[in-house]
Amino acid sequence: MSSSMYAVEKGRETGSNTAPGPILLLGAPGVGKGTQAKELVKLWGIPQISTGDLLRANVAKGTPLGKVAKELMGRGELVPDSLVDEMVAARLKEPDTAKGYILDGFPRTLGQANWLDGRLAAEGNALPVIAVSIQVDYNQLLRRITGRRNCPVCATIYNIFMNPPKRDGFCDVEGAALVQRADDTENVFKERMRAYAGLTAPVVEHYRQLGRFAEVNGDRPIQVIAAGIVDAVERLRK
């Protein structure tokens, strides 16, 4: 067993004394960022910070920031970086972020990356962000996304290419006809990939130039990918 795989397994049993600091997980739609974030949360005992979750929580709680966001979304407008930055800043003040946190969906733009770097640098003793990009071949991602089918009764998820039901088009458990989400089509996937690449390329280059960027092969078992991320973080933190 490699040292990183041992670290992952040991972390499951006893937790980890490592202070990983802020980790930004990057990856195109369908690479499994959410799955890997959960693995790292269990290993390091640090929170996952998702801007989508923060936005929904602020709106649901009726915070001042949430009220502004709700009004903007109600008019069909995008929530600006400045408002997202404020939500993130408030979240990072909470004590569970002391050892680090997994960033999911933020920073999404170069402006957000510069803001976050500046905020952490101003704290003096805060570790800087490390960005790890999970890489999966385009065609494999396309199969992951367009092959998804859901049971409308029990919510079981299948993939017609990689995990098909026993009877084509029907759930193994309920026998119900499987459905495909409207945004799981090839055209939508291509647009999402184009948008992701356009936004993320400057962020990747930003952290690459700072020497705080690594790529990990995401077309492997979950535990092996997690081990690769651990390796990358340990290497870049030295």
What does the secondary structure layout of this molecule look like, with pairings?
Blueprint: H1 3-14, E1 21-26, H2 33-44, E2 48-50, H3 51-61, H4 64-74, H5 81-92, E3 100-104, H6 110-123, E4 130-135, H7 138-146, E5 148-150, E6 157-159, H8 186-209, E7 213-217, H9 222-237
Helix pairs in contact: 1-2, 1-9, 2-9, 3-4, 3-5
Describe the biggest sheet? 5 strands, parallel
Which H/E pattern describes the elements?
HEHEHHHEHEHEEHEH
| Rounded mean pLDDT score | 89
The fourth-level CATH homologous superfamily of the largest domain is: P-loop containing nucleotide triphosphate hydrolases
Could you name the CATH topology of the largest domain?
Answer: Rossmann fold
CATH architecture of the largest domain: 3-Layer(aba) Sandwich
* CATH class descriptor of the largest domain: Alpha Beta
Oligomer: single chain
Radius of gyration: 19 Å
Shape: globular
Overall number of domains: 2
Strand runs, count: 7
Number of helices: 9
Report the structural category: alpha/beta
N→C terminal distance: 22 Å
Strand order of the largest sheet: 2-3-1-4-7
What does this structure look like?
The chain has 238 residues and is of the alpha/beta class. The chain has two domains: 3-147 and 190-237, P-loop containing nucleotide triphosphate hydrolases (Rossmann fold, 3-Layer(aba) Sandwich), CATH 3.40.50.300; 148-183, no CATH class. The protein has nine helices and seven strands. The protein has helices spanning 3-14, 33-44, 51-61, 64-74, 81-92, 110-123, 138-146, 186-209, 222-237; strands spanning 21-26, 48-50, 100-104, 130-135, 148-150, 157-159, 213-217. It has a five-stranded parallel sheet with strand order 2-3-1-4-7, sandwiched between helices. It has a two-stranded antiparallel ribbon with strand order 5-6. A hairpin with a 6-residue loop joins strand 5 (148-150) and strand 6 (157-159). Helix 1 (3-14) crosses helix 2, helix 3 (51-61) crosses helix 4 and helix 3 crosses helix 5. The longest helix is centred in the last third of the chain and has 24 residues, at 186-209. The protein is globular, with a radius of gyration of 19 Å. Mean pLDDT is 89; it is low at 3-8 and 10-16.
